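Possible regression after last week's pipeline update?

I re-ran a chain I had predicted before the update to compare outputs. Posting the input and the new output here so someone can diff against the archived version. Not blocking, just want to make sure nothing changed silently.
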Amino acid sequence: MRPLRLAARLRSPHERSLFASWTSTTESEVAVAASVSQAEGEVLKKEHIFAQEELSAYSILSGDSNPIHTVPSAAAAHGFSACVVHGMLCATLFSSLISSRFPGSVTESKNLRFKEPALVGDRLEAIAKVLRTRVAKDSLSVDLKLECYKKETGGLVLEGSSTIIVPSKGHNVLQKFTDSEIPPTSEAL
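New output (post-update):
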């Protein structure tokens, strides 16, 4: 059994410390493995109300110039009482939520289905439920169920799933990708 697989089963700080002293695994790597393995069943939540200024900024950044996102009269002409929040802007709530619980994690995959539009002023609640954790080489893999609701009506805005990779301390998860697969930084553009 690889060290991180066993480390993920250790619960007390004393067990983790002893294990780290007996192996080449550091205490922080053992703590990460134990913390993530104990996350199964955990539910993460975040609420947010998108303002028109956020939609305008996202439109510029994304290049999505559809006026239903930025011009209230265009949204009204299509039957909406306010501008429609970009679906992918709603999805950013998950990134914020996940990175606060699993700092340093990277998304391996994400699958989203857009169900009902969210509008400026809607109180949204993003929910990520940890379904499963697995030990991978030098990292831990976490499967999540994702949902975003309108708080006032309970309407489902989007749903999906994601798998993230949580590195053990000191391990660069981007090493698993080739240089051609890693997007350039803003300085390289």
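Follow-up from reviewer: compared with the archived run. The helical segments are 3-7, 13-22, 27-37, 52-62, 72-77, 87-101. Marking as no regression found.
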